[in-house]
């Protein structure tokens, strides 16, 4: 029997972002694993300290390029809650629209990444082709495909105000996206080769998921209700009807299937919001607010990968104090590291990827003492 170690990363062809994975194996079976992140560390929380809150919010958007909107929205919501700032209804609708578009582009990006790991380049390219109209919609709305800078304290930027003339085009794109997504999902969930690589692989049972505080689609693939939008933490979603998708098997296939079906729920939300938008008042910004000192408060949102936590306070000059950000990948990765055991070494990167990790999001955390000095 061969016993040894296989080191993957921090640069590898199956990785979207750098990380180091050590697999301790017997023959070709993983017996233990050690996942190390931190290659992208930038210390954003430390940089936020002492910044005027407007600048700190914009800095938060740069934490990630895949989920930039939800970071900025979360940062803005903290100060709006702390200073009791009322946001116009139209602005809230547009914030939701941009977030659900972002969920669509994030999930389809994962599909492409998963297919690439599985060695199915054709399906990977189809996923990226499917994603392209969503990216074009971002550009049409905000002028950018990555950092849209939509929310600001008290509302949204004027350039992100969706015009009535844009709505038919966006709805038409969504119809075509939905049609193509159905075909991609049917092909994925019924292809014997793809299913054989995902079914009963990387099983995260309900108990282990709860122990490691798995969140988002990773938790919902193990049958755990965790959608912050449905739990009342994001009241901006109260006007919309949609379902929380749950699967019980907890394997890679379940986590992929949750994201497929979540895309259809996002489309459902988008159609409701876009059709209601023309009837809403034109006001998108409430500039009649005052910043005042408050102690750190909590704010939860449902990012594409799950529960996202923001907390900070303001001093008497409107500067950020005691900033803390927790992204969903941090806890999901702990669960993935645990379930790697007893699976074949060739399944390792697929299992890691099945929680849709965003290492850049996670790597913005704790500052070393040397950096502070």
UniProtKB/TrEMBL annotation:
It is an enzyme of class 1 (oxidoreductase). Residues 118-282, 300-364 form the NADH-quinone oxidoreductase subunit D domain. Ni(2+) binds at residues 64, 67, 358. Fe cation binds at residues 67, 361. SUPFAM superfamilies: HydB/Nqo4-like (SSF56762). Pfam families: Complex1_49kDa, NiFeSe_Hases. It comes from the Archaea. Mg(2+) binds at residues 45, 325. Keywords: Iron, Magnesium, Metal-binding, Nickel, Oxidoreductase. GO terms for molecular function: ferredoxin hydrogenase activity; NAD binding; nickel cation binding; oxidoreductase activity, acting on NAD(P)H; quinone binding. Its cofactor is Ni(2+); Fe cation. Its EC number is 1.6.99.5. The keyword Oxidoreductase applies. This is NADH dehydrogenase (Quinone).
